[in-house]
Amino acid sequence: MKNDKIASVFDHPDYQAEVEYLEFTKVYINMILESSTGNKENFKENIKQAFVDLDYLDSSLSYINILTNAKFLEMAETQLGRLQSILNNPYFARINFQREVDGKEELLYIGKTSLYDRENQLPIIIDWRSPIANVYYDGRLGTVSYEVNEEEREGYLSLKRQYKIEDGMLKDIRDVDLTTHDELLQESLAGKADNRLTEIVSTIQKEQNDVIRASLQHPIIVQGAAGSGKTTIALHRISYFLYIAGENFQPEKLMILAPNRLFIDYISDVLPELGVDKIKQTTFVDYMKACLGEKIKIAPTNDKLLSLVEGAENADNIKWISSYKGSLAFRDLLDKYLKDIEKSTAPSEDFMLEKYRLKKGENLKRLFLKEYKYLPIYNRLDKIKGLLSNHLKTKKKMILTKLEEKYDDALEKALYNMKDASKRKKKVSHLLDQKEQRLETIKAEGKVAVKNYMKMFKPSNIFTLYKELMTSPVKLMDYSSLNESEATQLSTYCTHLFKKKVFELEDLAPLYYLKTKLTGIDDEYKMKSFFIDEAQDYSYFQLFALKEGSGTDLFTIVGDLAQGIHSYRGNNSWEPVLKDIFPSANYHSLRKSYRTTVEIMELANDVLAVMKEDLPRVEPVVRHGPKPIFAQVNPKNTNELVTLLKKNVDELYKQDLNSIAIIGRTEKECKVLANLLGASDVKTQLLDEMMDMKKGYVSIVPSYLSKGLEFDAVIMVALNEKYTNEELDIKLLYVAMTRPMHRLYLYGRAPSDFLLDEVNENHYQVMD
């Protein structure tokens, strides 16, 4: 059936059949839920009994019984949770697919998880991540293909059908063909924002699906426009990854690196929905601190950004130092420094036991520099120590045996060759004393020989090594191409920083890199795959260090250069990442924005065009709304401003737009706004990166912290500050403008506060 739209769901010719299938599915799920609940209780009883039997039976059998039932209990609980979550909305789509191999047509219903008939193993629901479900997302009607274990399979797709199911009731049926527009997507986009990210399995678009299902054997870099769904896609890719990997991969060995803890809270609800709640989530700073293993103080990560936003006098100095610390040139400097550390650490002296040489120094040096090169530098010393200990055990026995034989021969000669009894007695006594003394000396020295030899090596603390390097202009010049002025500038900056007993974010990657090369990272923190969001804010060195330290290149990296408010760290292009860090990576560009209306996106595109960089215009999905509104306000008349804001918020609530943010340029501006609104009855929450967003509150958030978040409506306020046409300000303005789904308001002293004097005046309206 290929009709654009059915006037009512009841008019659809397959309505009755679809209702019956939905009821059958719900009944079947309930049946399994009852069965699983019973199994769950049985497993619990078995575990209790096994603990009782622990004292009476073979303990190993009891432990096996406990572990087996615990595993079954975990599986039962997982299945219960999975099925309970889909009971009232078991699937969202159906395909009619005829396999080329046998010509048999199958009706396949697609949902968040799979469900099979226990009697005949036929699918009742197929998982959206399964290979055949790909034809729903990727295939048009007609001849299509999909891949299973790198083998292509073909067939004929005669139907793509979408469902809207709410509270277990079939509300809508849509049949999709080449001429129909994806109305469910439009309805989804017209929906309301929440304080949490949600899954999009029912509305995944082809270009998004390409990213989700891209090769899992290669790293992937996604340049995604604001509102393109790149964060959501990355999380769905994790879900797909775990589905394909199955039991061959531990979810705990996969890590999401989020920009801040506020963001972790924002994505928290979607993780269980996608079945990826066991994966680790943290920030780059927290992960680095855990890997480094020592409590260190880090300067607030946004201090530099604030300095630049507020026009600090040393802005150029801050930018240069941040960029250099984040560059691959700085990595090269550290590599040369490490080479010297390696040479100075390498053994050179012979390993002796008394006067016996057990191992030549040159051989130990060769082992250290070549044979053990696969190990971190300081860990090679443990290898040397183990080698010497084993060598000593063998050689000491030989030495003691030979020494005894030597003295026994001398004693025998003295006894038989010396005629004078007095002299013979004296000689024998002397030899026996000497023998005993030598043997005792060798035994005693043998106990401490390895320990004494290893005392020559004194591994330095990683933080000490780093400080010694960064505060010495001479060393900085020796290991790099920095001139005297640059080296002095860098060392002076670092000396001032370290005197305050703090490091900054840009120091973490080099410290982590030094640790990987000198001692290695603890296995607990070695991940097998990373998902990095807001990756445009990572320096090249950060990405390289993560790859080097983890020993894997299975990275999913998503970001948007247009939102690169930390580009002073050096990352303003993906090309070096593709060329020098992840040469085998697949690259995808997502230009469509699914968040904002056409009207909001047109204004944001205009603002981005003010910047000199050649960044592509974002393509909004066709969803219209009111033009952004500029309202002129007098910062001195605070009562009028509060009244206007309250009226604006109340109107938005009446329109059922409940997720609202007031965005100021800086934290300072936001604090002023929070104080002004504090006396009103508008419930507000001043957000920082450590907080969770509360429902029912208007969020007041600085522009740089709003990145990655989404709201129904945004009110941007410029009281005492304005956005200039400098790159950083343009990016901050662009970030803030692309947060709302439906409404954008700009309150300022003049249109120029938001660069509206440099955009198409038809792309916004002025409040009367």
From TrEMBL:
Residues 203-597 form the UvrD-like helicase ATP-binding domain. InterPro entries: DExx_box_DNA_helicase_dom_sf, DNA_helicase_UvrD/REP, HelD_bacillota, P-loop_NTPase, UvrD-like_ATP-bd, UvrD-like_helicase_C. GO terms for cellular component: cytosol. Residues 418-445 form a coiled coil. ATP binds at residues 224-231. GO terms for biological process: recombinational repair. PANTHER family: DNA HELICASE IV, UVRD / RECB / PCRA DNA HELICASE FAMILY MEMBER. The keyword ATP-binding applies. It comes from Mesobacillus persicus. One of its GO terms (molecular function) is hydrolase activity. Keywords: ATP-binding, Coiled coil, Helicase, Hydrolase, Nucleotide-binding. The keyword Nucleotide-binding applies. This is DNA helicase-2 / ATP-dependent DNA helicase PcrA.
